[in-house]
Specification:
There is one protein chain. It contains 14 helices and 13 strands. By secondary structure, the chain is of the alpha/beta class. The chain folds into 3 domains: 6-119, Gyrase A, domain 2; 127-210 and 385-431, tRNA modification GTPase MnmE domain 2 (Four Helix Bundle (Hemerythrin (Met), subunit A)); 217-372, Rossmann fold (3-Layer(aba) Sandwich). The strands form 2 sheets. The chain has a 7-stranded mixed beta sheet, with helices on both faces. A 6-stranded mixed beta sheet has the order 3-4-5-2-1-6, with helices on one face. α10 (311-319) links the parallel β10 and β11. α6 packs antiparallel against α13 (412-430) and α12 (386-409) runs antiparallel to α13. The longest helix has 29 residues, at 185-213. The structure holds guanosine-5'-diphosphate and magnesium ion (MG).
C-alpha cells in the first residue's frame, strides 16, 4: 500500500456540467471529513457542501466514498462531483493538497490499482487504450481486455505450462525411477497443445494490435496518375491539391481513416520522376523516406501507362531492407468506361478503380484491410500492444526451442529451461514479472487522473 494520498481531476480540463476530483490513499477519509463533514457510508452518494480552510463554501455536490480494499485502487477513495468549473476544481485541488494530499502523476491511480492487485498489467493498459480508442471496435476490444478476457487466456496457458514443467522437472529429479519421460507421448502431446495455444493467442493479439495501432499506407507512383485524388477520395474530403500539372504534390500529406475499425494512416507523396526543380526533388526525397517507413505501399498508375513509368517505385522498393506489402492501383478506369475489379496473380493484387468517380474504392478498402491481415468480422477481439506480441513471440520461440532440444538431443534440462523462459515471457504480459522501468514507462503514458 502506498503511504501517501494522491488527488487529481478525473474529468477532462475545461468547463462542463460536472467535474470529478478524486482522492486515493490512507489520508482520504481525514481529508474528506475536513472538506465535506463526516465521511459518508461507503458506496452511497450524498449531497454535501465542500468548504475551504476558512469554512467558506467552495461548491456543493455529490460525494462518494469507497473504503479499502473495495475501490478502483484498492485504497480508500473519495470522489467529489462538483460543478464543472476549472476554478472550483482548482479550489478543491488546492484544499486537498493543503490537507496533505499530493497531485497525482499520470496513470498513478491505475498504477496503484495494479500494485494492489485490483488489475493486472494488461488490464491496466486496457484502461488507457479504452480512453484513447478511436473506433467502436477498438473501444469494445479494449473493454474486453479490461474485463480480463485476454488475461484469463494467458493464465490458463501458464497453468498448462506449469503442469508440464512440474512433470518434466520431477522426472529430471528422479532419474532412477525409470520414468523415461523423453519417450512419454504425453510430453510431446502437451507441447503440441501448448504451441497451438500460444499461436492462437498470438493471432488474437495481432488482430488486437492492428485495431489499436493500425497501419501506415503510403501512396506512390509516377506523377499525375491521380495519387492525390485517391487520397481525397479515401478520406472523403478535399485535403490534397489536385491539378493536371505534374509535380503538384511536394510535401507529405498525412490523413487518418478507419476501414472497418482498422486505423489507417494514409500518406500522399510527390510522384517519382526525374525533375530539375529543387523543391520537387526535396518532395521526392521525402516520398522515398515515407516509403521506407510504410507498412503498405499503394502503387498508383493509370490505365494504359507504360510499365517503365513504374520503374522508379519498384527500384526503390527493391532497395528496402524489408519486404513491403503492395497493392497496385490502376486508376482512371472511367475514361474508357471499364468496370472496377480486383485481379490477383499470386501475391500481386491489382485494383482497377476511378479515384474521380469513386468506383472501385470499396474494393480497395477491402484489399487494404486484407493486406494488413485484419479480420474485421472476427468476434471477441481484444485490444493488444506491441509489447504483448513481443512477449508471445518470445514464449513461442522458447517452446519450439524446447521441443528442438528434446527431439534432437533428448535434453530434458534444456526443455525445462525453455519452458521456464516461456512462462516468464507470458508473465511479462500480465505484469507478474515486470521491471520497474517498464512499469514507469507504461503508466506515465496515461492521462492524469486515471
Ligand atoms: N478521368 C480521371 N481523371 C483523374 C482521376 N484521378 C485523377 N484524375 C486527374 O488526373 C490529374 C492528376 O491528378 P492528381 O491527383 O493531382 O495526380 P497526382 O500527381 O498523382 O497526385 C488531375 O487532372 C485529376 O483530375 C480519375 O480517376 N479519372
Ligand atoms: Mg499529387
Amino acid at each position: 500500500m502506498a503511504a501517501d494520498t494522491i488527488v487529481a481531476r478525473a474529468t477532462p480540463p475545461g468547463r462542463g456540467g460536472v467535474a470529478i476530483v478524486r482522492l486515493s490513499g490512507p489520508a482520504t477519509a481525514a481529508i474528506t471529513a475536513q472538506i465535506a463533514g463526516a465521511v459518508p457510508p461507503a458506496r452511497q452518494s450524498v449531497l454535501r457542501t465542500f468548504r475551504d480552510s476558512a469554512d467558506e463554501v467552495i461548491d456543493s455536490g455529490l460525494l462518494l466514498f469507497f473504503a479499502a480494499p473495495n475501490s478502483f485502487t484498492g485504497e480508500d477513495v473519495a470522489e467529489f462531483q462538483c460543478h464543472g468549473s476549472p476554478v472550483v476544481v482548482d479550489m478543491l485541488l488546492s484544499r486537498a493538497t493543503r490537507l496533505g494530499a499530493r497531485l497525482a502523476e499520470p496513470g498513478e491511480f491505475s498504477q496503484r490499482a495494479f500494485l494492489n492487485d485490483r488489475l493486472d498489467l494488461a488490464q491496466a493498459e486496457a484502461i488507457a487504450d479504452l480512453i484513447d480508442a478511436t473506433s467502436t471496435q477498438a473501444a469494445r476490444a479494449a473493454h474486453r481486455m479490461l474485463q480480463g478476457d485476454f488475461s484469463s487466456r494467458i493464465h490458463s496457458l501458464v497453468k498448462e505450462l506449469i503442469e508440464l514443467r512440474v512433470f518434466i522437472e520431477a522426472a529430471l529429479d528422479f532419474p532412477d525411477e525409470e520414468v523415461d519421460f523423453l519417450a512419454d507421448k504425453r510430453v510431446i502431446q502437451q507441447l503440441d497443445t501448448l504451441e497451438i495455444s500460444i499461436a492462437d493467442l498470438l493471432d488474437s493479439a495481432q488482430q488486437g494490435q492492428l485495431l489499436r495501432d493500425g497501419i501506415r499506407a503510403v501512396i506512390s507512383g509516377p506523377a499525375n496518375v491521380g495519387k492525390s485524388t485517391l487520397l481525397n477520395a479515401l478520406v472523403g474530403q478535399q485535403r490534397a491539391i489536385v491539378t493536371d500539372i505534374a509535380g503538384t504534390t511536394r510535401d507529405l500529406l498525412h490523413e487518418s481513416l478507419l476501414i472497418d475499425g482498422l486505423p489507417v494512416e494514409i500518406i500522399d507523396t510527390a510522384g517519382l520522376r526525374v525533375s530539375d526543380d529543387p523543391v520537387e526533388q526535396a518532395g521526392i526525397a521525402l516520398a522515398e523516406q515515407a516509403i521506407g517507413d510504410a507498412d503498405l505501399l499503394l502503387v498508383v498508375s493509370e490505365e494504359g501507362a507504360s510499365s517503365a513509368s513504374l520503374a522508379p517505385v519498384q527500384d526503390l522498393v527493391h532497395q528496402l531492407p524489408k519486404k513491403l506489402r503492395q497493392i497496385s492501383i490502376i486508376n482512371k478506369i472511367d475514361i474508357e468506361h471499364h468496370p472496377a475489379k480486383v485481379v490477383r496473380d499470386g501475391e500481386n493484387v491489382q485494383v482497377y478503380l476511378s479515384a474521380k468517380t469513386g468506383e472501385g474504392l470499396d474494393l480497395l478498402r477491402a484489399e487494404i484491410a486484407a493486406a494488413a491481415g485484419f479480420r474485421p468480422e472476427e468476434e471477441g477481439l481484444v485490444i493488444a500492444r506491441r509489447r504483448h506480441l513481443d512477449a508471445l513471440l518470445k514464449a513461442s520461440q522458447a517452446a519450439s526451442a524446447g521441443r528442438g532440444a528434446l527431439r534432437n538431443y533428448g535434453a530434458g534440462e534444456l526443455l525445462a529451461e525453455e519452458l521456464r523462459n516461456a512462462q516468464q515471457a507470458l508473465g511479462e504480459i500480465t505484469g507478474e514479472v515486470t521491471s520497474d522501468d517498464l512499469l514507469g514507462k507504461i503508466f506515465s503514458s496515461f492521462c492524469i487522473g486515471k
